[in-house]
Design brief:
13 helices, alpha/beta, single chain, 18 strands, two-stranded antiparallel sheet, 12% strand
Amino acid sequence: GAADHCCLDHCAAACLRVRGKAPMGVDGPLLGGGGVAGRLETWDWVRPISPKGCAASSWASQFPLVTKGRHIVNAHGDRFRLCAINWYGASDVSHVVGGLDTQSLEVICQSVYDLGFNVVRLPFSNEMLREGLPKAGSVDYTKNPRLRGLVALQVYDEVVRSLGRVHVAVIINNHTTYGEFCGPPSRNSLWFDPNSTFSEEQWIQDWLMMAKRYACCDHVVGFDLRNEIRPRKSRWPKWSGGGPFLDELTGECNWARAARACAERLMTANSRALLVVERIVWPQQGLQTMAEEPGPLLPALRGRLVLGAHLYAWSGPGRFIPQWSVPPGLECLFAALRGLGAITARNYGDLTLDELAAQVRQEIGGVLAAARCPVWVSEFGADATNPEEMQWLARFVDVLADLDADWAYWPLNVGLKPGTKADEAYGMLSSDWRPKSTGDTRLVLLERIGLRAPPDAIAAPPLSAPPPPMLGSGPLRRNASKQSCRSLLGSKDPLLAVKSTPDVKGAILAFKPTCNLVAGLRRVRTADAELATIGGTSAREWYRPPPPRRSASMGTGVPQRIGEAWDEEKAAELSPLRHVRVVSKISCDPARF
């Protein structure tokens, strides 16, 4: 049965294993599962999997996709706009897509189709390729009996097949090296791990295996080479530089060279798939240098190249720092760094409507205007219960509509994030991994950029209420949503389960950066804080900026907390120190900054 699922020869069948035993390849253990340190795994045993009905329909006849100027077109010459959604999990600790512990694979795939998405961005980790049976509890085998006995990579195969059967295309994405949630600088920051056998060449070999594996699946339309590249300790990714030897000497990593090398070898293994190259996420720059012609990618990848970018309200251009990631007690320091220009002063969520549109056009609009290649905004999203993020999403969707760019919402997933006790706030489905019976305002917003529920949808959700009213065109208030933003990262919340913070220095807890770090702050009493000294003033209180004045443009339906007086109960609810029981010896002297 395993050999039939993977269409492997007798050598490949021998590699399938159960957890705890080293996976065996043609010549011995596979890399990452007990293999010899430094050994390169070339995956010679891999054979293409059978699409099993995915390629038999007229729908599949439109593939492969190619690029033509700023657009992606199908085999008939018609535009194929990527209206996609991310479905993560195979890149995380469980090594399989989310939801299989709750719902059947067929129902989830049908839900993707019913919502109107035509593509799934399907992340995987290099570690997952070498895993055995999925982590206990990650698959409900009573709902997914045909997944019983399959290793993680075979489960990934079945996800690819099931999406094809409901006419949803797939772009596979190398999200991480190790099975972990992608976050701050870590061992997953680069496309390789300099301290392990996961070298750059092994990364390319893994990609060649995936290209070979899905060569017969026409609906696997693209390869997203790597997710969100960022610095790692002394290693800094650059879009320039020399070869691997120079990278080793300087500590710089040339993403342009590596992406070009990987893409060219993928074109020899699978000449049909689009090749997505994402920008470096920190510091975050525009796409113009990536699309230079002649340059590292063009004209060599013409007809196949798609550039990728991610944008969230909490992210930003340049050296951005999300507000929720600032450690408690260091807010003054980070405000000073913003004022000095050492880090980005304002993130995307802090920009006015006109500023946001201008910034996004500067970063990705120039490439589209010059028709060098398509741009895929392959991650963006918002918490439907957070008014500020929803207002930002409404603005951002309008910018995307004006640019006519391809896109992918993050994510499909709901429930607990892998390896954490925090819910996925951006998820699009209900808790049973079906479309919400009440609809979703975010789906209404996505209709502005091409999302359409198919006429034959089995469980098409009803239209939801219109989007929340816009609060003018000024910058969105970030203070009220700071607590909600913290909840998005679950275990990475720097205040999760904090009980006391004695001897903390620098305690302006939430503020609007100004030339005078204390100017404009007002006092809000709380029962949780002891004697605090801020700017020479002592009181049982903590500080936050005054709320904005209510304007006529706010209309009805605006949350009461915007523009209203703050009482102790509301202040305690939104305090970033809600878990803190003792705060002592706190000081922040503006003169020091």
